[in-house]
Specification:
Largest sheet: 8 strands, antiparallel
Order of helices and strands: HHHHHEEEEHEEEE
Distance between the termini: 158 Å
Radius of gyration: 64 Å
Strand order of the largest sheet: 1-2-3-4-8-7-6-5
Structural class: alpha+beta
Low-confidence stretches: 101-105
Mean pLDDT: 78
Shape: rod-shaped
Strand content: 15-25%
Number of strands: 8
């Protein structure tokens, strides 16, 4: 080991001296250094260099901390959910059974609706009594004798335009199934009366009212008869049954 170190030291000294000779070759002999340089590199033999091995480590990103307001919102309790009330399904079978009253309850005379007092000629023949009121009666006056109307509809002219209103009434005398009164839209007064018999034929009409008659065909096999000596029109179906009487 000592001989190897001496040999390495000698080699180092020779290398340093050679370097000084190259660097001072242009100097005069007087200025040239006679001793070798004190500095030098001395490398001792050792083990071969070791290459470090690197290991890849996964680094997790930092988790941001919630702000104070967010922490308060998270820590605050949630409001209660609204109460939803589901209505039970109506079951008529679940209702208590109420016994029906079998005894008739008498109606107090004072609670019965007052019936209009009919004039003598109205009680005898309601259709022709209403005919006498043409041009006089208004709807309100008709209600005073016949009561509240059952229904109403528009009265149309030849061009299918509304020019009045027709109100249906119950016949207080029960002679006819129904009465219809046609009121003019401009004047508001009665202008036509229609009556619907329970059971009447064209032969019954001819026996009751005589006179000259003109006939006209109507839809669905019906016929329309008009008297020339009185203001009376009769609508008859295909079997000869009277549908209505028109008074004007």
């Amino acid at each position: 080991m000592k001989s190897t170190a001496l040999i390495a030291l000698a080699a180092t000294a020779l290398a340093a001296f050679a370097a000084d000779e190259r660097n001072t070759g242009s100097l005069p002999p007087v200025l040239r250094p006679l001793e070798p340089s004190d500095s030098g590199v001395f490398r001792l033999p050792g083990p071969p260099p070791v290459t470090p091995k690197f290991r890849t480590v996964a680094v997790k990103p930092p988790v941001p901390k919630p702000s104070p307001l967010a922490r308060k919102l998270v820590a605050a309790p949630l409001p209660p959910l609204p109460l939803i009330v589901v209505a039970p399904v109506f079951n008529p079978e679940a209702l208590p059974k109420v016994p029906l009253l079998t005894a008739s309850v008498p109606v107090m005379p004072g609670l019965e609706p007052a019936k209009p007092v009919l004039p003598a000629d109205a009680a005898q023949e309601m259709a022709f009594y209403c005919q006498k009121q043409i041009g006089k009666w208004t709807e309100a006056e008709a209600r005073g004798i016949l009561g509240a109307p059952l229904r109403n509809r528009a009265a149309l002219d030849e061009r299918k335009r509304a020019n009045g209103r027709i109100f249906a009434f119950h016949d207080p005398t029960s002679r006819y199934r129904e009465l219809e009164l046609d009121f003019d839209a401009k004047t508001g007064t009665l202008r036509t009366v229609f009556v619907y018999p329970h059971k009447m034929t064209w032969q019954d009409v001819r026996r009751r009212w005589r006179g000259e008659v003109s006939a006209a065909e109507a839809p669905q096999g019906r016929k329309f008869y008009s008297y020339s000596n009185r203001r009376l029109d009769v609508l008859v179906d295909a079997e000869g049954k009277v549908i209505s009487l028109g008074l004007y």
